[in-house]
Amino acid sequence: MNETIKAHLYVLLATILIASSFLVSGKLSGIIDPISITMYRFVLATLVLSPIFIKKEYREKFKSTFKRGLIISFFYSIYFIGMFKALETTTVLNTSTLYTLVPLMTAILCIFFFKDKISFKQLIIYLIAMIGTLIVVFKSNLSLFLHFSLNYGDIIFLIACVSMAFYSIFLKLLHKDGDILLVLVFSTLLGGIIWMFLSMQVLDIALQWDKIEGNLLYLMLYLSIVTTVITLFLYQKASIVLGSKKLMAYTYLSPAMVAVLVYIFDKQTISFGIFIGILISAVATVVILRQK
């Protein structure tokens, strides 16, 4: 199996795992502040990874890697902070809709950072993929779409989306030959803890981690290990081979993955309209991934 196929499988697996995080996060929502939950998630993930520094080689790599991890984690953290602040004044539906702009934002940034080009044909494919994803997001309900309007929280989330696009750019831009990916993942998580801690101080948010106990702690461990450590590793490994545009193209599949997982685990049916939306976004994503 060549490296390109492996990279696509890595991102596909990461997309499924991130979709599962929506289901798990829903069970944790409302218990403590979401920024505090994210910091807790990063702390647990960092603790899980810390034994890697038993190896001298990893310790020696940390100093040069941490500076770059701090930059990568800045954009990663800004996205989460922006999302949580946005949800105070907007809806999940609105944020899901705006998130479909991330692949196109990434493609535009690639023009400036990597001298990529977007042809008219590619632009049309991006728009078709967005339409397919929006059909899933709005549950094929035209009335919901027609009542969509922007508010202050949406502006905040648009900034968060730009930050997510920059995150994928810097994953590729700051990679160096000889990097140890586990050290880079650890540096990114540690940087995330720093940025989250600073934001909690500015926003005066209490930790309240003692409220996460019993079965909730197992859910936190799942978020920390499976949907944080593993997905960060998969994304950083795949970005080296695929680049930022193709990495973010998988975003179009996220709502479809959530719909499928909800169908499997919560027995919620998928309507014909949503199925068509999943099909459109899947085909368009494949076309984007096949572009040179």
Automatic annotation (TrEMBL):
Residue ranges occupied by any EamA domain in the UniProt entry: 6-137, 152-289
Membrane topology, from the record: Multi-pass membrane protein
Compartments, record wording: Cell membrane
InterPro entries: AA-Vitamin_Transporters, EamA_dom, EmrE-like
Gene Ontology cellular-component annotations: plasma membrane
Primary location group: membrane
Signal peptide per UniProt: none
PANTHER family: INNER MEMBRANE TRANSPORTER, S-ADENOSYLMETHIONINE_S-ADENOSYLHOMOCYSTEINE TRANSPORTER
Protein name: EamA/RhaT family transporter
Origin species: Arcobacter porcinus
High-level lineage: Bacteria, Pseudomonadati, Campylobacterota, Epsilonproteobacteria, Campylobacterales
